[in-house]
Design a protein that fits this description.
Strand order of the largest sheet: 13-12-11-7-10-9-8-14
Radius of gyration: 21 Å
Mean pLDDT: 93
Strand content: 15-25%
Largest sheet: 8 strands, mixed
CATH topology of the largest domain: Rossmann fold
Structural class: alpha/beta
Shape: globular
Number of domains: 2
Number of strands: 14
CATH class of the largest domain: Alpha Beta
Number of helices: 16
Bound molecules: nicotinamide-adenine-dinucleotide
């Protein structure tokens, strides 16, 4: 068990250390007999996360109860609540429904709405003292990412857990390869390619008389303002592996992309981005959502001494690392086990900054492709004088709650001049 934990994200130790050194006493959680949890966003992943959370509780020998659910659409909340034994009067609909889940007696909140809503919902959940599972990505723009970082710091101060849905970080193959790379198996990484080339998961057409807000919330996967575009929404998994294995963030992104086949919304359907990680190290990021094209999802890195294929085959120097022992082969369950165990042991995991920064890495790739410009990491991360630092997509999550959503035109960005 100790071996496994030594490979889990350094942030475990960091957040515990930070809390101790800044004088905040994190209460020793102890193992509860039962955990009450709530869900915001009752779609595919929300339903899956409920099952994953329950399975994690079972592994830890803890009873679990889903006590409240929320969705923008009341019918969706009711269907998922009903299927999971939640009383009808605790199934909430509407753009403010998240507040009711957060106000319930749940101790953990699972958030699986479109990512544009995450910063607002996460801030409210931490304010109310809830442990948070925040699905990736956690925002769609720099303002949202900075908000998540700030909320993550509040969560750390309160001793709350923050875990995200980057399941590769909770699977044995990836954890082992990361350990091997850190032990010098392939030498310093000199370059690589990360890819999510697939098809459009789904599109939804506008219903007769439907409001801008409801259409965007239903068809969120095809609007940049709600999903961040697919480089953020989907390809983030592979970009996360690149940043994790390299142990640093890129310096610049220079990319292009466009829209060839997508039929609704305003997103691109292909991107090709060169991420410069400094010291001559480049990672080529490629993602596409077009049916009938060659599909490949994964990560490949070349080092001075060998090569590594994501969480799979690795060749190079013969180095030894401790065996990775997990509770389950399913990373989407293991991430919940790790979250709950951290709380029980009084060392809550806090991955807020990590996932916010990786979200921002994907955002600069999109920004470069949309504008045709080279985008610097420092301009979105630390240079408060840059207009990119305070860039926010509109409509915002607050607009949905206030009822002031104006849908953007369903046309993609076009960089450059004719
Ligand atoms: N970790 C993974 O591998 C993985 C896989 C799939 C999806 N995801 C992520 O999970 C999130 C949800 O994706 P999904 O596939 O479940 O989408 P989905 O469309 O199936 O579900 C989203 C749900 O959120 C609801 N919703 C929209 N706006 C809302 C609001 N303001 N308040 C409350 N509910 C709202 C929608 O009505 C819908 O029911 C996304 O961030 C996505 O990127 C992660």
């Amino acid at each position: 068990m100790m071996k496994r934990r030594s490979f889990l994200a350094n942030t475990t130790l960091l957040s515990a250390g930070l809390a101790a050194s800044s004088g905040f006493a994190i209460a020793q959680g102890g193992k509860p007999s039962k955990i009450k949890f709530g869900l915001i966003g009752c779609g595919g992943r929300g339903k899956g996360a409920v099952q994953n959370f329950r399975e994690a509780c079972k592994i830890l020998g803890i009873e679990s109860e889903l006590v409240a659910v929320a969705d923008a659409f009341g019918g969706q909340a009711l269907a998922v609540g009903k299927a999971n034994g939640v009383p009808e009067d605790r199934c909430y609909g509407g753009y403010d429904a998240y507040q009711k889940v957060i106000a319930s007696d749940c101790q953990y909140v699972l958030m699986a709405t479109p990512p544009s809503f995450r910063p607002l919902h996460f801030a409210a959940a931490v304010e109310a003292g809830k442990h948070c599972f925040i699905e990736k990505p956690v925002a769609v723009d720099p303002v949202g990412c900075h908000s998540v970082i700030a909320t993550g710091e509040k969560a750390a101060a309160k001793g709350l857990a923050v875990v995200t849905g980057t399941q590769r970080r909770h699977t044995a193959g990836y954890l082992k390869n990361k350990a091997l790379i850190d032990a010098g198996a392939i030498g310093p990484i000199r370059g690589g390619v990360v890819q999510w080339n697939g098809t459009v998961p789904w599109i939804k057409r506008r219903n007769e008389g439907e409001s801008d807000a409801d259409y965007m919330a239903r068809n969120w996967l095809n609007f940049c303002e709600t999903s961040g575009d697919h480089i953020v929404e989907q390809h983030i998994h592979n970009l996360d592996v690149a940043c994790w294995f390299l142990g640093r963030m890129p310096v610049t992104a220079l990319g292009f992309g466009g829209r060839a086949r997508r039929e609704t919304g305003n997103m691109f359907d292909f991107f090709s981005v060169d991420y410069d990680f400094g010291d001559g190290v480049h990672i080529h990021s490629q993602c596409r959502q077009i049916s009938g094209t060659y599909g490949r999802v994964g990560e490949f890195f070349t080092g001075t001494e060998g090569e590594c294929l994501g969480g799979g085959k690795i060749t190079g120097r013969d180095v030894q690392v401790p065996e990775i022992k997990l509770d389950t082969n399913n990373g989407m369950v293991q991430e919940h086990v790790d979250m709950i165990r951290g709380v029980i042991e009084g060392k809550p995991l806090n991955h807020a900054r990590r996932i916010a920064e990786v979200t921002l890495v994907a955002v600069i790739g999109r920004m470069s492709a949309y504008t045709g410009q080279l985008i610097r990491w420092s301009d979105v991360m630390s240079n408060e004088n840059s207009p990119l630092f305070s860039f926010a997509c509109k409509p915002t999550a607050e607009d949905f709650e206030k009822g002031s959503v104006v849908m953007p035109a369903e046309v993609p960005a076009v960089p450059g001049q004719a």
